[in-house]
DNA sequence: GTTCCACTGAACAAACTGCCCAGTGAAAAC
DNA sequence: GTTTTCACTGGGCAGTTTGTTCAGTGGAAC
């Protein structure tokens, strides 16, 4: 939908201090409350802001091990595999990617030993031909959005 | 830190309707406001809840293409490569993984053609020996946390 | 039996929200 | 050139929520 610099600054402010309300937002942006409200509504209804759900840290829940598994799927078994993986709570994310019927999923586990259990459960299905797993050691760049927002706001060229 | 069923329900409620406040939360949980407040504070200070930042959809910002790139890094070049990738706004996430000096990063781009530009920028560095990219076609399971929270709350055995 | 701790239920002032309105300026349409 | 449209401003209002504090209760640990 495209965002201008004001939208960009609004998103940055929200990313830095999510608890601030519309009023405080408008103060920091130097605009009227109605404007901040309208911008926020537009970003939300336009799908740019999907929501404000809590960002939960799996490690703090007792799942400090993260891994990415690449799965090779037998022809036509895709839907079954998806349904299967959806039932595994340790599967946090699943993508289908280009390549020979591949899927990529993000897993967490209580320990390296526990990861074996998770993987066994994940691959314990007919449709999965092969799985290769990479265990995450460090996370130098956690999921971030601000740089992209800044880029998108600049590209729009509009003031803000 | 471990969570009990009440914490679990609280997290689920927040995940479903993030805008509700502490008062509404306490009403739905059937506890006093102070209790909901205290639980929320504990989860936040304990690191389970990292924050309530807006979940921004890159597609709505004009970046509908997502890809995962596996990078093979030359010995000792890790830190330089990290620093380099941090400067690329289209790099949303970066992990170092087990394997031969590998990194895994999540990219977005404005189009498949634009992805080439992003990848060129990503690999445009001495330390990177090889890069293989998988373009995401579908995302059957978007990043989710509720099933894991439920699991963690059950495992604790405590009431809620 | 005492202490500790989480929870309840209540109160209060301060702040925020949702909602409304009239007025302004600039760009677009006629 | 005139009119219309639209985003923004700045203000007001009632209702609700928040931050904070307090006394009282019940269970568990010591």
Automatic annotation (TrEMBL), chains A, B:
Any coiled-coil regions, as ranges: none
UniProt entry keywords in alphabetical sequence: DNA-binding, Transcription, Transcription regulation
The keyword Ubl conjugation is annotated on this UniProt entry: no
One Pfam family in the UniProt entry: AsnC_trans_reg
Residues annotated as domain HTH asnC-type: 3-64
Keyword tRNA-binding on entry: no
PANTHER family assigned: LEUCINE-RESPONSIVE REGULATORY PROTEIN, TRANSCRIPTIONAL REGULATOR AZLB
Protein known as: Lrp/AsnC family transcriptional regulator
Organism: Streptomyces smyrnaeus
């Amino acid at each position: 939908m495209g965002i201008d610099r004001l939208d960009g600054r609004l998103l940055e402010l929200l990313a830095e201090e999510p608890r601030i309300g519309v009023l405080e937002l408008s103060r920091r942006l130097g605009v009227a409350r109605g404007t901040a409200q309208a911008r926020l509504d537009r970003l939300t209804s336009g799908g740019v802001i999907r929501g404000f759900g809590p960002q939960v840290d799996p490690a703090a829940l007792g799942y400090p091990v993260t891994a990415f598994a690449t799965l090779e799927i037998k022809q036509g078994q895709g839907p079954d595999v998806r349904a299967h993986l959806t039932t595994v709570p340790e599967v946090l994310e699943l993508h289908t990617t280009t390549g020979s019927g591949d899927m990529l999923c993000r897993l967490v586990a209580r320990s390296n030993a526990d990861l074996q259990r998770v993987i066994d459960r994940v691959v314990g299905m007919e449709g999965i031909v092969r799985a290769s797993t990479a265990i995450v050691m460090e996370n130098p760049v956690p999921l971030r959005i601000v740089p992209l927002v800044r880029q998108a706001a600049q590209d729009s060229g509009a003031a803000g």
